[in-house]
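Hi R.,

Quick one: here's the DUF2442 domain-containing protein sequence you asked about.
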Amino acid sequence: MGTLALRADERVAGVEFTDETLSVALHDGRSISVPLLWYPRLANASPAERQNWEIAGGGYGIHWPEIDEDLNTEGLLRGAPAPRTQSAPAGDSPNLE
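And here's the predicted structure, written out as tokens:
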């Protein structure tokens, strides 16, 4: 499997949210918009938690310290949603009594 070669102009310039999307502006002028539901930690975060982000990974990543979420421009450019977590198999549910 090949990897997407990142260019210097694909660094994060800014991050914006709507109720349904995450948009990341890149230094080359492009903007990547993805459904917010692709990233459950961000979707479930408060607006204040979403706005508390920092550039990471040499400029190619975004980190949200309050919710421990990290995204990078390579994944966003590929259109990669967060991996789905597997639920417990049938019969392995916790006892709620």
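The chain has one domain: 8-78.

Cheers,
M.
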